[in-house]
Amino acid sequence: MSSIISHSATLRFRLKDLDTLPEPGRVLMVRPTHFSIDYVINPHMEGQVGKVNKEKAMQQWEQVRDAFAATGKEVVELEGGKNLPDMVFCANQSLPYCNPEGGHEVIMSIMNSPYRQPEVPLIADWYDQQNYERHHLDGEIIPIFEGMGDAIWHPGRRLLWGGHGFRTSKDAYTFISETLNVPVITLALHKSHFYHLDTCFCALNEDSVLIYPKAFEPEGLRLIRSLFKNVIEAPEEEAMDKFACNATCPDGKHVIIQKGAKQTSKALKEAGFEVVEVDTSEFIKSGGSVFCMKLMLW
Ligand code: ARG
Questions:
Q1: Pair 92, 149: CB distance under 8 Å
Q2: What separation in angstroms does the CA of 230 have from each of 60, 213, 263, 287?
Q3: Which Gene3D superfamilies is this protein grouped with (predicted)?
């Protein structure tokens, strides 16, 4: 079933009607050997050029890696490319998918910033070694798409949530929906600090999501509330400064999240999740945290 949904009035299915999607068993991470802040392409990077503590960043990255491994996932480590300081944010170069036949497919990104565009062919080479079927957007028609920064699978169901506005063109989702044969619910983003969907929307399990509500238009919020039974809201300071919504729940139970997002962590615990705090402060300077430091795949 392929369709694009951008209005709750056009939502003609219940979650239970959609086919199930298996839980990803692998986590790809790109080592931060070349991580630094050399340019400004999002508001969080302002005033941070040259300010990354590389040793601290490496320790923090290893802590995140170990947190994923502790949930039983297989962590695959890749070396980052030289002069590609943002390649560590490996949620952005692609959108992987496991089709109903168990085949592996991937939509490769077209990065918004020329600084980041050379990351994509390096990740594409890795997919070729993994026997993924690669799909490419036509850059003439669809100028930008930033992978899982904006396109997020609904846990357990063949449904994609697609953010657009800053780093992804809305039209990308027509191609993706038709190519992968899945419905896509699009969500407009309108606050520049919340430039990727993963900065304000964290799908935890089939019924639960963590969001920063002000990052969405009223119609987007209606769509989120109509498909998730439990909507946990992060307060502004935690969403903004602690990247609270850039967390990840790899197994439906543990939530790996930046430390110090007190109210969010409390709400997650009350909802029955186990909170695993990590420190990603060096990466937050660049506009990313746990979610975008990895890519879940099959
Ligand atoms: N500095 C990177 C950029 O602006 C950070 C990317 C963070 N990724 C994410 N999915 N939020 O592109």
A1: yes
A2: 30, 13, 16, 27
A3: L-arginine/glycine Amidinotransferase, Chain A (3.75.10.10)
Give distance in angstroms: CA of 20 to centre of ligand 1: 29
ipTM of predicted assembly, 2 dp: 0.98
What letter represents residue 54's amino acid?
Answer: K
Structure tokens at 134: 């690669």
Residue 148 CA: which ligand 1 atom is closest? 10
- Ligand 1 midpoint to CA 41 (Å): 9
Q: 3-state secondary structure string, 152-207?
A: EECCCECCEEEEECCCCCCCHHHHHHHHHCCEEEEEEECCHHHCCHHHCEEEEECC
The token duo for 245 is 């919504």
Number of domains in the chain: 1
**Domain of residue 218, residue span:** 22-297
Q: What is the pLDDT of residues 188-242, one digit of tens each?
A: 999 999 999 999 999 999 999 999 999 999 999 999 999 999 999 999 999 999 9
Enter the pTM of the model: 0.97
CATH number at residue 211: 3.75.10.10
